[in-house]
Amino acid sequence: MARVRLIDVAELAGVSMKTVSNVVHNYVHVAPALRQKVQAAIDELGYKPNLTARRLATGKTGMIALAIPEIDHPYFSELSRCIAEEASRRGYRVIIEQTLSDTVAEHAVLQDREAGLVDGVIFHPVRMQALELARSQRDTPLVLLGEAAVPVTTDHVMIDNVAAARDGVRHLVALGRQRIVFLGIVADDITVTTTRRLLGYQEALVEAGIPLDPELVLTVPDFTPESCSAAIQAAIASGLTFDAVLCRDDKFAVGALQGLHRAGLDVPREVAVVGWDDTALTSFTRPTLTSIAPDKARLASTALDLLEERMRGHQGSGRHRLVPHSITVRESAPAIPG
Predict the structure, then answer these.
(1) Which of 329, 300, 245, 296 lies closest to 75 in space, CA to CA?
(2) What CATH number is attached to the domain comprising 260?
(3) Residues 213 and 303 in one domain
(4) Residue 335, in any domain of the structure
(5) In this structure, are 186 and 264 located in the same domain?
(6) Is residue 242 part of a domain?
(7) What's the alpha-carbon Rg for the chain, to the nearest Å?
(8) Do residue 78 and residue 102 come from a single domain?
């Protein structure tokens, strides 16, 4: 079967090839009725853009890569959707790659980007060090996410995890809570994220004049809600008393809620709980979950702003951008009345 060409779509729709190209590339200044007409022709003929021809003509593929540690982690899943939707609005398609925080897989992300398959890469590294990232710099634009070591040559977008943790503790202190658990430290954790969040937790306690108690920093063997539930129940069984829990992420908070329920403690009357990432999980827990909320939409748009500027030829040292965070208050740690 012969490949459907741009001119075939134009002839069927009764428009110019330029108009079809504008629709294919999601150019905003196309009348809705005309766009619908062209799209109908595209759908009828099954037209697909010839990426090889596009690259030969423009040097661009119209595709970007997004490399994240875990596709099925709620935070990365929701962030990926934000990036994909924002990229689509700008006329790009997104290839999503999962690294599972594996060294070989992370190096492959930066090696493969030189193969000419994509115009740019958004990458959340975990294991790669700053010098490794700096040495990998070549022609394909790169923007980094997260808190792993970042070379000064590379653009980088993140939230301030220390400040966000401080805000979470301040919210709990404002509710009158004084014995606040940090859940938690993960055995063999290679991420910087947990360390930064623990630091913010500790700084906020010092700020509030609350003594630091290492017994309130719980360790879990892995990142699963089941382990977090078991850690909370074990802490209670050992006689540890506490009236609040700041969780490393919403999955940890789900485990905390389960553990508190199994121990017969009421949330939030006896123990308040704050999660992290403000994912869809928060609305389906019982009680619903108060959560620290990184602005995922802003993170996506900022990363794409920087990437597009690099793709258009911007030169210079790396730019580092902090995006806002907030606290979405729900039942597990409600706001103070009045």
Answers:
(1) 296
(2) 3.40.50.2300
(3) no
(4) no
(5) yes
(6) yes
(7) 24
(8) yes
- Strands of the sheet containing 93-98, edge to edge, are 93-98, 63-68, 120-123, 142-145, 155-158, 320-322
pTM, rounded to two decimals: 0.83
Give the residue from 93, 75, 97 showing the smallest Cα distance to 84: 93
- Type of residue found at 205: L
Q: Per residue of the chain (338 residues), give pLDDT as tens.
A: 567 888 888 999 999 888 888 887 767 678 888 889 999 999 899 887 765 555 545 567 789 999 999 999 999 999 999 999 999 988 899 999 999 999 889 888 887 665 568 899 999 999 888 878 877 766 789 999 998 777 888 999 999 999 999 999 999 999 999 999 999 999 888 788 999 999 999 999 999 999 999 999 999 999 999 999 999 999 999 999 999 999 999 999 999 999 999 999 999 999 999 999 999 999 999 999 999 999 999 999 999 999 999 998 888 889 999 999 999 999 999 987 65
Got the DSSP string for 35-63?
Answer: HHHHHHHHHHHT----HHHHHHHHS--SE
Question: Is the same domain home to 124 and 173?
Answer: no
Domain that holds residue 112: 61-159+296-324
Q: Do 182 and 152 fall into the same domain? A: no
> Checking DSSP bridges between strand 180-186 and strand 244-247, what pairing results, if any?
parallel
Query: Chain centroid to CA 324: how far?
Result: 13
Say whether both 86 and 147 belong to one domain. Answer: yes
Kindly report the number of other CB atoms within 10 A of residue 150's CB atom.
20
C-alpha to C-alpha distance for 39 and 303, rounded to whole angstroms: 29
Does 221 share its domain with 287?
A: yes
